[in-house]
Write a structure and sequence with these properties.
- The protein is of the alpha/beta class.
- The protein folds into two domains: 11-61, DNA polymerase, domain 1 (Orthogonal Bundle); 68-331, Alpha-Beta Barrel (TIM Barrel).
- 33% of the residues lie in helices and 20% in strands.
- It contains ten helices and twelve strands.
- The strands form two sheets. Strands 1-2-3-4-7-8-9-10-11-12 form a ten-stranded mixed β-sheet, with helices on one face. The chain has a two-stranded antiparallel ribbon with strand order 5-6.
- β8, α6 (198-207) and β9 (212-216) form a beta-alpha-beta unit.
- α6 (198-207) packs parallel to α8 and α9 packs parallel to α10.
C-alpha cells in the first residue's frame, strides 16, 4: 500500500502543482493553508469554501493529520498538559502545553527518541529511532491547538530529541510558523534548547533571525559534563562556549543557560562559582531547574537551602538568575521526564 503524502510536509509550490494538475487555481492553496493554521481544521470536510470534489480528492490522496492523540494528561491546577502522540497506534512523540499569565507555551519534540542520552533524562533511555519530519513537528502544535480550541502564543523546542541534530526540519518548521501568511508567530517567541552542537550553533547565528537560544549546560567543567552529557566528549565545553559567544556577538541576543541542580553532583558553592566564572563576560540568563524524578535514575533534588545559596552566589557575581517553575512533574511532563509513558 502506497503511503499518502502528509500535507504539512509538502511545500506550498508542491501543493500548487498538485492542485493545478487536477484543474484548480493556486489560490485554493491559500484557503487550505488558512484552514490548517488559522482555523485548526481536523478534516477536509470542514473546509467549506473548497469545492466538494476537491475535498474528496484531498481526503483520498493527502493526509491532513498524521499524529493521533493517544493520551492527554492534565495537572490538577490546569497549568500543564502532556500530550502523547502516535502513528498507527504506536507512540512516537510527546509535547507539553504550559499555561502562564502571558499566554500558552508549547514544548515540542524534534526526534523519536534521543541520541544524546543525558544521564539525568528519561528521554535518553528510549534510544534514538529517527528525526521527526517538519510536518510531524508542526502537527504537535496544531494538534494542541485543535484540542484546546486556542491559538498557542509561544514555542520552545525542548521536548524529546536534540533540535540541532534535526536542523533543517526544525528551521523549516520555524520559518512556516513565523510566516505572516501562515501562523504569524514572532520569531522572538520561539526558543531552541540544545546541549551544544558548535557548528549548528554557528549556523543558527545567521539563520535565527530573532529565535532565542538556550544551552542545556548543567556543568561547568568537561569532566562532570562528560559524565552527565556523554555527547560532551564529542563537543567539548570550550568549543561549545566559543560557538555560543559567537551567537551572542552576531545576534546581539541574550543567551539562556539551563542548569538542572542535582544534589551533591553539581550544586556546591564551588560549582556555582565555576558557573559564574564561565559566563560572567556574557549577556545571559541562568535558568535553574529543579530535579524532576525519573524512574531508575539515581539522582536527587538539591536541598532548598543549597539552591538558595547557589542562586545567591550567581547573583553576587552579577549573573541574572531565574528559577524554573515546577510545572508538569505530576504528569511526567517536566524537564527530563518525557519517555512516552502511559500513566
Amino acid at each position: 500500500m502506497i503511503e499518502k503524502p502528509f500535507i504539512l510536509d509538502l511545500s506550498l509550490e508542491e501543493m500548487k502543482t498538485m492542485l493545478s494538475g487536477i484543474g484548480y487555481e493556486p489560490y485554493r492553496v491559500e484557503q487550505i493553508k488558512d484552514w490548517i493554521f488559522k482555523k485548526f481544521a481536523s478534516s477536509y470536510d470542514e473546509m467549506t469554501n473548497l469545492p466538494k470534489e476537491l475535498r474528496s480528492y484531498l481526503a483520498e490522496n493527502v493526509d491532513l493529520v498524521k499524529l493521533s492523540m493517544l493520551e492527554v494528561y492534565e495537572e490538577k491546577r490546569g497549568q500543564a498538559k502532556r500530550y502523547l502522540w502516535g502513528i498507527n497506534g504506536s507512540a512516537c512523540a510527546e509535547s507539553v502545553l504550559l499555561k502562564y499569565k502571558y499566554g500558552t507555551t508549547a514544548c515540542l519534540s524534534t526526534q523519536v527518541g534521543c541520541p544524546v542520552q543525558c544521564k539525568f533524562c528519561a528521554s535518553g533511555k528510549l534510544g534514538f529511532e529517527r528525526n521527526l519530519t517538519r510536518g510531524e513537528i508542526l502537527d504537535q502544535l496544531l494538534g494542541m491547538c485543535r484540542h484546546t480550541g486556542q491559538r498557542i502564543s509561544r514555542v520552545v523546542f525542548m521536548g524529546t530529541g536534540e533540535p540541532f541534530l534535526n536542523y533543517d526540519n526544525v528551521m523549516e518548521a520555524i520559518d512556516l510558523l513565523s510566516s505572516e501568511s501562515i501562523y504569524d508567530m514572532s520569531r522572538r517567541k520561539m526558543t531552541i534548547s540544545t546541549v551544544g552542537i558548535p557548528d549548528a550553533i554557528r549556523k543558527f547565528s545567521n539563520d535565527s533571525r530573532g529565535v532565542r537560544l538556550a544551552l542545556s549546560l548543567h556543568a561547568s567543567s568537561n569532566g562532570l559534563r562528560d559524565e552527565l552529557i556523554p555527547l560532551n566528549r564529542a563537543y567539548p565545553l570550550g568549543e561549545i562556549m566559543s560557538a555560543v559567544r559567537y551567537f551572542s556577538q552576531v545576534t546581539g541576543q541574550r543567551v539562556t543557560f539551563e542548569y538542572m541542580l542535582l544534589k551533591d553532583i553539581n550544586d556546591s558553592d564551588k560549582d556555582a562559582q565555576a558557573l559564574a566564572n564561565l559566563i560572567k563576560d556574557m549577556d545571559c540568563l541562568v535558568n535553574l531547574i529543579p530535579w524532576n524524578p525519573v524512574p531508575g535514575v539515581p539522582y536527587e533534588a538539591s536541598d532548598a537551602d543549597q539552591v538558595n545559596r547557589f542562586k545567591k552566589i550567581l547573583e553576587k557575581n552579577h549573573i541574572k538568575v531565574t528559577m524554573r517553575r515546577k510545572l508538569g512533574s505530576s504528569i511526567e511532563g517536566a524537564c527530563g521526564q518525557l519517555r512516552r509513558a502511559k500513566t
